[in-house]
């Protein structure tokens, strides 16, 4: 049994499910947003037998999680307490108890994870990614994470004509912002850096690369947004950007594989910036990043690779 921990609103679910059907693999959906209600969790521990079961999580009937041999952890939804509970503190308690029960369940599940939630959480930390990427032999742009306005100004002076961009260390769907250039308006707001650390990074002219890693396979795509109106973050102008398959230098591919192994990730979407001189700079890794937009524009068989990774013995 393959467990798909996602929800029906995820556009990646249907293609992966179809690919698993072609492989004749058994799978079931588990939507964490349906727990603790209306779904149910029932774990029997100790005594003569152990049973791990959930119901109402998106698939028909109860699921015996002891039979699960692979898990696709794909951007699960937050736990959903009963809105009829009158106090917000009690609703938070109910959601927290569901989270703890499932966390304990995940930790002991004997399955291949793509990716394990604990490893994915740690791997998503940008400061750790950048430090580890250097240790794995990858080049990274000059970066400073600071809550000191004077240090931020000094770093911008150090970069000089190269310029800088800034981004959030962590973003929720409500607080997401694209990567932005530091201009006069942003410099005027530097005193506010003391309120929360900001990641400043050297602005590197060039072409973006999205590398989708599935097991040992690396699918590299070039995303050229230089003539699309906003080359600071291709996500803003993706529809107008040129997307095509590309190849990675052997040393860069080896460095990426070392990085993903060190992070414990079987799947990841990695962003690089390739300069005119051919240097490849590591920007960040998203442990559960999107891939359909790459597959649709390049024809790279990423969905099939994900399904094969989940279904392989």
Tell me the major beta sheet: 5 strands, antiparallel
Number of helices: 9
Q: Detail the poorly predicted runs.
A: none
The percent range for strand residues is 15-25%
| Strand runs, count | 16
Our measurement of the CA-to-CA distance between the termini, rounded to an integer number of angstroms, reads: 11 Å
Percent range of helical residues:
25-40%
Rg over CA atoms: 22 Å
**Cα shape:** globular
Provide the domain count: 3
Structural category is alpha+beta
Strand order of the largest sheet: 14-13-12-15-16
Mean pLDDT: 94
Can you tell me about this structure?
With 313 residues, the protein is α+β, with helices and mostly antiparallel strands. It has 3 domains: 2-114, no CATH class; 143-202; 205-300, 2-Layer Sandwich (D-amino Acid Aminotransferase, Chain A, domain 1). The protein is 30% helix and 25% strand. The chain contains 9 helices and 16 strands. It has helices spanning 13-22, 88-107, 117-123, 126-135, 149-159, 184-188, 250-263, 292-298, 302-311, and strands at residues 2-5, 27-30, 40-44, 51-55, 63-64, 70-73, 112-114, 143-146, 164-167, 180-181, 198-202, 207-214, 217-224, 242-245, 267-274, 280-286. The strands form 4 sheets. Strands 14-13-12-15-16 form a 5-stranded antiparallel sheet. It has a 4-stranded parallel sheet with strand order 2-1-6-7, with helices on one face. A hairpin with a 6-residue loop joins strand 3 (40-44) and strand 4. Helix 4 (126-135) packs across helix 7. The longest helix has 20 residues, at 88-107. The radius of gyration is 22 Å and the shape is globular. The N and C termini lie close together (11 Å). The relative contact order is 0.14. The mean pLDDT is 94.
């Amino acid at each position: 049994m393959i467990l798909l921990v996602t929800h029906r609103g995820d556009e990646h679910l249907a293609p992966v499910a179809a690919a698993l059907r072609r492989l004749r693999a058994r799978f079931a959906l588990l939507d964490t947003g349906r727990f603790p209600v209306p779904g149910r969790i029932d774990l029997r521990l100790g005594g003569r037998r152990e049973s791990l079961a959930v119901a109402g999580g998106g698939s028909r009937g109860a699921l015996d999680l002891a039979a699960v041999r692979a898990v696709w952890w794909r951007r699960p939804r937050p736990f959903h307490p009963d809105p009829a509970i009158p106090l917000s503190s009690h609703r938070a308690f109910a959601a927290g108890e569901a989270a703890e029960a499932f966390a304990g369940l995940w930790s002991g599940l004997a399955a291949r994870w793509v990716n394990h939630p604990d490893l994915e959480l740690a791997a998503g930390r940008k400061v750790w990614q950048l430090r580890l990427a250097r240790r794995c032999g990858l080049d990274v742009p000059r970066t400073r994470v600071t809550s000191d306005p004077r240090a931020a100004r000094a770093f911008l002076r150090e970069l000089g004509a190269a310029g800088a961009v800034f981004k959030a260390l962590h973003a929720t769907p409500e607080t997401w912002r694209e990567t932005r250039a530091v201009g006069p308006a942003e410099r005027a707001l530097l005193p506010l850096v003391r309120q929360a650390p900001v990641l400043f990074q050297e602005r590197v002219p060039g072409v973006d690369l999205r590398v989708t890693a599935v097991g040992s396979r690396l699918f590299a795509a070039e995303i050229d947004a230089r003539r699309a109106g906003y080359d600071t973050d291709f996500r803003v102008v993706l529809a107008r950007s040129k997307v095509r398959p590309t190849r990675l230098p052997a040393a860069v591919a080896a460095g990426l594989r070392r990085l993903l192994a060190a992070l414990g990730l079987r799947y990841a979407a990695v962003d690089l910036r390739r300069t005119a001189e051919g240097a490849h700079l590591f920007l960040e890794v998203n442990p559960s990043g999107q891939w359909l937009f790459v597959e649709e524009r390049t024809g790279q068989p990423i969905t099939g690779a994900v399904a094969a990774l989940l279904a392989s013995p």
